[in-house]
Amino acid sequence: MATELPTAVDSALAGMRDRARAASGALVALGAEGRSRALLAMREALHARAEAILAANREDLARAEAEGIDPALSKRLALDPAKLATLADNLGELARLPDPLGVSQGRRIAKGLRLETVRVPLGVIALIYESRPGVTIEAAGLTVKSGNGLILRGGHEALTSNAALVAALRQGLEAAGAPADAVQLVEDPDRRWVGGLLHLEGLDLLIPRGGNGLIRRVVQEATVPVIETGVGNCHLYVDRAADLDMALAILRDGKVRTPAVCNALETCLVHEAVADAFLPMVAAQFRQDGVTIHGDEAVRRRIPEALPATERDWAEEYLGLEIAMGVVPDLEAALAHIARYGTHHSEAIVTNDYRAGTRFQEAVDAAAVYWNASTRFTDGFMYGLGAEVGISTQKLHARGPMGLEALTTVKHLVRGEGQTRDF
Amino acid sequence: MATELPTAVDSALAGMRDRARAASGALVALGAEGRSRALLAMREALHARAEAILAANREDLARAEAEGIDPALSKRLALDPAKLATLADNLGELARLPDPLGVSQGRRIAKGLRLETVRVPLGVIALIYESRPGVTIEAAGLTVKSGNGLILRGGHEALTSNAALVAALRQGLEAAGAPADAVQLVEDPDRRWVGGLLHLEGLDLLIPRGGNGLIRRVVQEATVPVIETGVGNCHLYVDRAADLDMALAILRDGKVRTPAVCNALETCLVHEAVADAFLPMVAAQFRQDGVTIHGDEAVRRRIPEALPATERDWAEEYLGLEIAMGVVPDLEAALAHIARYGTHHSEAIVTNDYRAGTRFQEAVDAAAVYWNASTRFTDGFMYGLGAEVGISTQKLHARGPMGLEALTTVKHLVRGEGQTRDF
């Protein structure tokens, strides 16, 4: 890495990084009002260029179809006038949120020095993501609001859409007197650009958003700071003291409505005392919903059509209409299972027993732990953060839904009258 | 890495990690009072076993001397009764600090759900460090206080001292009914253990403390979360509106008293308007102090004995009685120099000009930026954190001196009455 000669890709990325850093400085200098004006101008530019953006998106969709792409991916790729208008209008909502920069805390420290700890942008942030062009708009909005420069590397199947979106966003920035280079797009589909970003010296944060393969590669290879997002092998534990109708509603909310997201449920564990009552309810509901059950022996005795669950099923993030189900003798067995197979994203218990609920919330090591509520609430908007750049499944810096503050750091400013430490 | 077969080292480290994680759970269960009692018992055990510890340290020192080790390293390695007693007593101070765990913030989120965000330990922390055995005590104290399990890998030259210290600390933990495995030491000097820690799956944080070579290797190679610490190429900029006596005192504090630390000064930039007045003052003082000056042409015209500064001098962290000095035409030139060569640790300006001071504090991208004060204040104790596990020079998670909070993360607990998201 460090010892190899820089390639043309590395040099180009270094140039983008330097322009993004200069843009970050200019965004800070604009102040909160200037950055809000930029967000409103970005919104207007998206509305004004909606036709060109939707035409570009149709081009991507036609190419994807010609290449015989997975329909689920096509769906994530597709924009329509209403969706684009909502994404644009969300920039206006973002403009109204409190400024995450400049917030400071002061105190006196040694020898009467005044220490002021102030929130500042991270600097230059890169995002590697897959097909959803909406992420382009959300990420640009969050980074402009927080005074950061952004380098985007989207999926090749969304390239034409992303180019049209970024052209509009940059036009908006310029119209508001803000630096267009605050939002830059890598337009070359060559994979070497991804490798270059993983090792781009001076990059302050790299966020991978997408499938497990992408996130694993970034975490394993990157030498720049990374926040790991989004892999969720989420569990629901139905306790012996559960309200079973509530449990079924939460199970269905987590599995059926939007199965392709990271806060969807992938495994359901049932206390053996309620297995006879609950499993037939699940079987009847999931037959209607078309959900395939992979069960352990105790489940298969009660749900004949369930397939046998293998070791792989317990670890699998299906992201589709499949679920792993098991019967456990008690809460501690459920906790042990979750500790072994969970991905520290979102886990839930349904119970009306105080000790079971508190023990579960205490013992589970995850970003979010639910008691009588759906795991689908792990989301920046649901948490009231106003926006979300991803859901962190790591423990450093940010955990769970990441809003604007996750895109900032602090600086310690110390003022004195010539104080020296003298030792 | 992931595809290779686990070695005996990897298996042993996995065992240490699992025991450390169980110990973390036990420390949390002990509560704040139980953890404080453990710290006091660790203090008592260090006092009680002081003779054995000092004998072990003499053994390390004798071996180091026989191997012809650098005297500066010998000095860092040496313990004496007073130093050991102070290190032990600091555990008592730590016991009195507020508990970093359990601190929570609550609010209502979507659909009336109650979200409680609560501070929890990171889990398992590993420290790779060099010769100072005092770090063993400090790190153990901080991790026990914050409910984390700790795996220590010290320098081979301090192995006997560290083994004696860790034996005492573990005895203290046990005496207080706390798990001894909260503090574990890798006692095999084989370098493969370092490699194993860099890739130990499930490790929550790895902190390297030591020279630039160690820190670079860890940051480049590690696939576990790392906080980068300590490299400090710190600058002092003496502005045209500086009080020159103050500037000289701050320069001397930063360069002469304790030159081998990361917050010491390595470069001094002087505004050309005060170069004729200030440089002779520096020359006279540094002749007495035995500091070698590496200067640019403008400095060498005024300080004949200064050696010519090369590109390498501007980037060098001397950690000794040497300094790079240059004359700049204005504040902006100083800022550009710091942006190019600084390591984002601590930077200082001396000036009585309001605009120069505010511009410097705004523009410099570093963990700590000083105005009329010494960079030597970048320190957890000086900042009133009560303790310090290192000084972060990165922007994610923690920046600047890291106290107890840097060893924690948050967990989001959500309670409801069966709420589902429904889309």
Give structural attributes:
homodimer, 423 residues, Aldehyde Dehydrogenase, Chain A, domain 1, seven-stranded parallel β-sheet, four-stranded parallel β-sheet, 45% helix
Question: What can you see in these coordinates?
Answer:
- Two copies of one chain form a homodimer.
- In chain A, about 45% of the residues lie in helices and about 20% in strands.
- Chain A has about 425 residues and is of the alpha/beta class.
- Chain A folds into two domains: about 10-230 and about 395-415, 3-Layer(aba) Sandwich (Aldehyde Dehydrogenase, Chain A, domain 1), CATH 3.40.605; about 235-375, 3-Layer(aba) Sandwich (Aldehyde Dehydrogenase, Chain A, domain 2).
- In chain A, the strands form four sheets. The first copy, chain A, has a seven-stranded parallel beta sheet. A four-stranded parallel beta sheet of chain A has the order 5-4-3-6, with helices on both faces. In chain A, strands 1-2-16 form a three-stranded antiparallel beta sheet, with no helix packed on it.
- In chain A, helix 1 (about 10-50) packs across helix 4, helix 2 (about 50-65) runs antiparallel to helix 6 and helix 4 packs parallel to helix 5 (about 135-145).
- The radius of gyration of chain A is 24 Å and the shape is globular.
- The model of chain A has no long low-confidence stretch (mean pLDDT about 95).
- At the A-B interface, helix 9, helix 14, strand 13 and strand 16 of A face helix 9, helix 14, strand 13 and strand 16 of B.
